[in-house]
Write a structure and sequence with these properties.
GO terms for molecular function: cholesterol binding. Keywords: Membrane, Transmembrane, Transmembrane helix. The protein is built from 6 helices and no strands. It is mainly alpha-helical and 143 residues long. The longest helix has 23 residues. The chain has a domain of 41 residues.
Length: 143
């Protein structure tokens, strides 16, 4: 970033345009009139900055205060919780709500989760066994 600022300052001093930096400006830029100090900047320059930077202990104190603020911010960010669900983003009356409700009813997070895999060996064709697969739920419901 500093290199870009330096290049921009060189461009301005060479009286070149902003976007078309290969071309020179016809007239000169007005001279910079400088910064005029107001009451707040005088206060910070004369009283506030010297009080903070007077001793090493003051500098350490400032660093500790800002380190404490940073730690407090990190702690607070870790305490945030997400309090939304999928249903908050789905309009009422949508078929997706019925799908999510069915998933909650049949696949609730409570209880024991069992993974069921159906493996077809010897190159059996899955389409020939469709009727027995459709009855699989009834056959295992009594177990």
């Amino acid at each position: 970033f500093v290199a870009v600022v330096v290049q921009d300052e060189k461009r301005q001093r060479a009286n070149k345009l902003d976007v078309l930096c290969c071309f020179k400006r016809k007239g000169e830029l007005p001279a910079d009139e400088g910064f005029q100090e107001n009451y707040l900047s005088k206060y910070f320059r004369k009283y506030h900055a010297p009080a903070i930077l007077k001793t090493v202990w003051n500098k350490i104190g400032v660093l500790l205060v800002f380190a404490g603020l940073f730690a407090f911010g990190v702690y607070g960010a870790n305490q945030l919780s997400v309090e939304d669900s999928q249903r908050d983003f789905i309009p009422d009356g949508s078929y997706v709500n019925d799908y999510i409700s069915a998933g909650d009813r049949y696949f609730s997070s409570g209880g024991t989760s069992i993974d069921l895999y159906v493996v077809f060996e010897d190159g059996q064709d899955i389409y020939k066994k469709r009727s027995s697969l459709a009855q699989l739920r009834e056959r295992v419901s009594g177990l």
